[in-house]
Specification:
Number of domains: 2
Order of helices and strands: HEEEEHEEEHEH
Number of helices: 4
Shape: elongated
Largest sheet: 4 strands, antiparallel
Strand order of the largest sheet: 5-6-7-8
């Protein structure tokens, strides 16, 4: 992700509309005059040398035209961009030996679950995965599944993704590879 361009985009198109009060109910928010809704921007970075989450706690009060303009400019930037449900967020995990690999789960407006490796939850797991995730093609650095899908399939998908990432290592990580038996 190009953080410089993202910062400029936020500064020019969102910050002028930042709310001054903390919302407690995003389904029935208190809007600034002229706004149609509130947008929260959250960046989940898969590059280990960048902050994992940024812009997570600001409320931007936008009308539809402002939001459309922001989306237009956002889609020009590299990365995966999704519209997420503000009240649905969770975690999934894969246990391997003494390591706990955590995933952040966000429900998108397209009725998908976006799963991204949730960094900085288990230092030893991070140490294994951080150098490997950037070796994946950008579109494979996260997982998209249908909302409400079979939990067994979801867990199996996480296991497969983790095996794929670990297989990129030049070190013997067989102790952390799941064989499904």
């Amino acid at each position: 992700m190009d953080h410089s361009n993202m910062n400029n985009l936020v500064r020019s198109l969102l910050e002028p509309y930042e709310g001054q009060m903390w919302q407690t109910d995003y389904l029935n928010p208190i809007l600034r005059k002229g706004a149609d809704f509130i947008v929260n921007l959250e960046i989940l970075e898969t590059n280990p040398n960048k902050p994992f989450e940024t812009f997570a706690f600001a409320d931007y009060h936008l009308n539809q035209a402002q939001f459309d303009g922001f989306l237009y400019q956002l889609r020009k930037l590299k990365g995966t961009h999704v519209l997420g449900h503000p009240n649905i967020r969770g975690h999934a995990e894969v246990l391997r030996g003494d390591l706990e690999f955590q995933f952040l789960v966000v429900h998108t407006q397209n009725q998908e679950e976006l799963l991204v490796y949730y960094a900085r939850q288990d230092f030893a797991a991070d140490k294994l995965l951080f150098p490997l995730i950037p070796l994946l093609p950008p579109q494979d650095r996260h997982i998209l599944l249908p909302v409400g899908g079979d939990p067994f399939i979801k867990q199996q998908t996480l296991e497969t993704w983790l095996n794929r990432v670990l297989s990129l290592s030049k070190h013997d990580l067989s102790a952390y590879t799941y064989t499904g038996q």
